[in-house]
Amino acid sequence: MRIVGVIIVFLSVVSFCSPSMAKQKTGNEKQENPHVVFSSFFAPGNNSKSERVNIPVTLVFEVTKGTDTKRFCLMSPRILDAVMRDLHKKPIKMRKNRAINLPGLGVRLTSVTNGALKKEAVLTTHAFDRVLTGKSGKTISAHWKKCTAR
C-alpha cells in the first residue's frame, strides 16, 4: 500500500510540473474544478507516544467539473461515515510537535470517498489539521462551496 501511495504522489507531482500546464489559459478555460468544503470534525489519532488523541480536521474535496456539488453535499453523511470508518481503522499518526503527513492522508481519503460514492467524482482531497474559518490564517476561499448538511 505504501508503494502505491508513493507512486500516486509521484505521478501527481510529475503531471503538475508538465510543460503543458505552463500555458496561460484564457476566458472560459480558466474555470477550475469546483471545491467542496465539509464542516470541521475531530478525527481519531495517535501521538508520538502512541496515546489516543482527537485532531481537528477540515476536508476540502476537489471534484470533477461534471459533478453536481449540491448532490455531492447531499451525499456528505455517506462520505463522512466512510471517512470516519477508515480513520477509526487506521488513526492519523502524529509525529513530534503535532506534525501530520497531510498529503498522504488526502490521497487515502480520496480513495475512501470515491469508494463511498461508487464512482470517480473526487480528484483530490485536501486535509487541514485545523478549523478553517474566515478569521484564521488559512481561510475558506470564496469560490469553495461549503456543505452544511450532516
SSE layout:
Blueprint: H1 2-16, E1 35-37, E2 41-46, E3 52-63, H2 69-74, H3 76-89, E4 92-93, H4 102-117, E5 122-128, E6 144-146
Parallel strand pairs: 1-6, 2-4
Antiparallel strand pairs: 1-3, 2-3, 3-5
Helix pairs in contact: 3-4
Could you write a compact summary of the structure shown?
The protein is α/β, with parallel strands linked by helices. α3 crosses α4. Strands 1, 2, 3, 4, 5 and 6 form a 6-stranded mixed beta sheet that branches.
Which key terms come to mind for this protein?
150 residues; alpha/beta; Tetrahydropterin Synthase, Chain A; 34% helix; 22% strand; globular
What does this molecule look like?
The chain is an alpha/beta fold. It has one domain (33-133, 140-146): Tetrahydropterin Synthase, Chain A (2-Layer Sandwich). 34% of the residues lie in helices and 22% in strands. The protein is built from four helices and six strands. The chain has helices at 2-16, 69-74, 76-89, 102-117; strands at residues 35-37, 41-46, 52-63, 92-93, 122-128, 144-146. Strands 1, 2, 3, 4, 5 and 6 form a six-stranded mixed sheet that branches. A hairpin with a 5-residue loop joins β2 (41-46) and β3. The radius of gyration is 16 Å and the shape is globular. The relative contact order is 0.20.
